[in-house]
Amino acid sequence: MGVAIFSDFFRFFASPAFCGFCFHGFLGSASITMMQSNFDIRDDQINLTRQILFHFYPGIIILVFYILFSNYVIELGYPGLAGLLLVELLVLPPVMFSHLAAHGKRLNGVFSFNNVIGFTARLSVKQYIKWSLIGIVACFLIYIPLYPAGLFLRDSVFDWLPEWYFNPVFGSSDVSLIATVFLAGILIDGIIGPVAEEIFFRGYLLPRMAYLKSWAPILNGVLFGLYHFWQPHNYLAIIGVGIVLSYVVWKTQNVYLGIIIHCTLNILGAVGGYLAVSSGELLVR
Fold first, then answer.
1. Residue 215 confidence (pLDDT)
2. DSSP H helical segments within 109-174, as ranges?
3. For range 55-71, the mean pLDDT
4. Where in the chain are the domains?
5. What does the alpha-carbon distance between residue 101 and residue 194 come to, in Å, rounded to a whole number?
6. Quick count: other Cβ atoms within 10 Å of Cβ 122?
7. How far apart are CA 243 and CA 222, in angstroms?
8. In 3-state terms, what secondary structure has residue 207?
């Protein structure tokens, strides 16, 4: 019964109809949320201690549920990636958006996102294209050389962790099932997760560390990278990418660029993973 339910679950999230619904509904609601911000966020700063706490506690919650969900889905015969996707869908957005709503209550007296999200400056289409390309290329130039370092750390420093922690297909040899999970990942890891992360880290936390001036995007990028407790071997690469994302958003005062760049990178990775497993290749995340 459990296997059948999860199989239908991932097929549903991989369906074109649901992908289209989420693309318009989820991003649309995010846009409305951000457009409501119309006050000076410099009057609502978050001190360094709380910044560190707010960057890390979502990652700790995600890690705990990742371990719990992964063990369960692997026992059902699903690949380990299914556990991460469940967390990214059912845990990550609620944790981050409930935090934003609570902050909105402190500001507005009611649970809302009003005045919570900053960095929504208007940009021309030309600026969007320019900065998106700069960000995507910069992230690739940073991530690709550092990826081998992640493999080295995986095999030397973090070799004590279970195989499913690094191998997204561990737990299943059913190519069709694995491909379905990876297909669902294009939506969940490619859009839903990145949108929530960008709104929280670059739209909420980054504007509230203006007192750090030019150090703000650097610290925000470093803390964002370290928040990925479920990918410790990739810390160097993720920190590098995080700094690029934070700098672009900070420089342009536009969190939409962070969403565009982050989603593009994750979608490309998810599509590549789907094509690879569809052809029978085994991957290591």
1. 98
2. 125-156
3. 97
4. 2-278
5. 19
6. 8
7. 7
8. helix
